[in-house]
Amino acid sequence: MKQEIKDEAIEQLEKDILFGFENGDDLLESISEMFYDESDFDEKWLKKEIDIRLKKHQTESLKWEKPTDFDRLVKSFDELNKNKIVSLHRSGYTKSDGEEDCSEIITELKEIGFSTKGYCYYHTQDLERAIAEEKMLFIGFDSYNRDDELAKEVAEKIVSVLTDNGFKTKWNGSIDTRIEIININWKKTVDNIDYNYGRVFEIIEKYHKPEKDNIEDKSKKAFWKIW
């Protein structure tokens, strides 16, 4: 296996470990897939590197001051979910991924009778800035129905909750501009907790009752599904 391939694999591995969302098996699968067209890619070598570096990161995490910024971000997003703002951690790789994931959850919640006000998220590209010198994390947002006034209310609530949890934020008040968390100190290690889909449903179902008028009748198919 070429040294340049090893270097590229290690570079990705180091970032993914700092992100802190993937366990050893996930890391092995995702990084191996990056080099699917490399016939001599050494998965045994990669597994060894993952084991060494992941263990080191987990050991270092024992010395972190608590709560970490990620702990406070989880607390913030949990509160937003409680307030019917669907909030997702590391939702896909791009803005479109994050918006699609949020919209999908909002649709599924509506199908079982739960209304929402809007959503927020950050994606993998945002995390790359958080662990880099910029130390900032962008938070994307919108209302559930793309209504501008409601979107602004959603953004103001997000900023308020983040501020209450000790974050310094920057937002110019425009719904076309994402919210920025400034000087975030990203520290997270893998814990095998679902911070997205399952967590959103668990929180919303815990604090809210389904609204019967909002429950969609799936037995009634749209005319285009009949053909």
TrEMBL record:
Query: Where in the numbering of this chain does the DUF6891 domain appear?
Result: 3-188
Q: Which domain of life is it from?
A: Bacteria
Q: Which InterPro entries match?
A: DUF6891
Organism of origin is Winogradskyella pacifica
Q: What is the lineage of its organism?
A: Bacteria, Pseudomonadati, Bacteroidota, Flavobacteriia, Flavobacteriales
User: What name does UniProt use for this protein?
Assistant: DUF6891 domain-containing protein
